[in-house]
Amino acid sequence: MLSAELQVASYPEGGVGPQHFSVVKVEVPDGADGLAEGEVLVRNTWTSVDPGLRLRLRAAAPEGYFSAFPLGAPMDGILTVGEVVASRAAGFTTGDTVWHSLGWREHSVVRASDEAMNGIGTLRQLELHGNEPQWFLGALGPMGLTAYAGLAVARALRGGEVLWVSAGAGAVGSLVAQMARLLGHHVIASTGSQEKVRWLQDTLGVDAFSYRDEEPGAALKRLAPDGIDVYFDNVGGDHLEAALDAMRMRGRIALCGSVSDYESEPRGPSNVFLATAKNLTLSGFRGSLYLDLLPEMQARVGRWLQEGHLVCPETVYDGLATAPQALADMLRGRTRGKTLVRL
Ligand SMILES: NC(=O)c1ccc[n+]([C@@H]2O[C@H](COP(=O)([O-])OP(=O)(O)OC[C@H]3O[C@@H](n4cnc5c(N)ncnc54)[C@H](OP(=O)(O)O)[C@@H]3O)[C@@H](O)[C@H]2O)c1
């Protein structure tokens, strides 16, 4: 049968958009007869939209990161949730809900034994326990793991400190803000609009400011006059510079990403010496390399979800063809929470 997939048509210079992709119909098996031993056919139901994809839409991805997406091919390495429609792999049966990493396509033929994306993208059965399947792309999946792992590497799982998270209304940031609040921190979240500021305050229950209306440095002086202990950096550039200024002695910074650089010339902080002067710890980390924390994170976040202490905000686009626009909108701050495509 024919099924649609999104292929990379050209690499963007500057802002990504639908013009850089093409929807292509490809032949996929109808059932188990068309599968090789060890393969599973999945009808994808939800696929993820992540800033990291933009880093791979270029001839060479940053060294050490996931590889660049080749032109004229579907994009391997985007976590996706779906239902098994046929299986020739032990342990997987028709009707199972799974995640895997062959996303941005309607159907995927997945080899169950292939390890993908440091293990986080390997074909995996999902026990829903009353949770929505798409939450496994957000709070109960890679976004939750990234938020939790970042708090762990910044030694911030204990609470009682002042923590700033940038891109605080986004997928990772909104989870960091909620987890840190539940752990007992004083949380300050920054974002790009007053509407998102109100949502962060009213719905997530944290302090918030808009970097478009107030310099981060001035906002931090106002909201945390004695300084901050932990900075969860999703943005880089001027935000990281403001954090170095605002950190207290022995503060910790979790370097999660630098989205302000992904579509423009990188701009590093000019005050790195403050890391030495204040005895700070700056830790880069990748959630996918902390797979051992996944069960602990899912247990804690699952409980918070069931008890109504944590929400899974999402912005949903419908249909595979909308995924490129969803990526463009997310990078420009037009979405809130986890950006998803329903297939
Ligand atoms: N280390 C890891 O393992 C890992 C895993 C997943 C994600 N990440 C990183 O985590 C960060 C957030 O990812 P996400 O999936 O949660 O995306 P997201 O926050 O849902 O979306 C990105 C948001 O960044 C904000 N932004 C864009 N350009 C900006 C700029 N110049 N200055 C300030 N804010 C800007 C926008 O929101 P506003 O409206 O607030 O401007 C935008 O919506 C990214 O840096 C990503 O690469 C890292």
Automatic annotation (TrEMBL):
Record's keyword annotation contains Iron: no
Organism: Nocardioides immobilis
Descriptive protein name: NADP-dependent oxidoreductase
Keywords carried by this UniProt record: Oxidoreductase
GO molecular function: oxidoreductase activity, acting on the CH-CH group of donors, NAD or NADP as acceptor
Lineage summary: Bacteria, Bacillati, Actinomycetota, Actinomycetes, Propionibacteriales
Pfam families, per the entry: ADH_N_2, ADH_zinc_N
Domain Enoyl reductase (ER): 17-341
Source species, domain of life: Bacteria
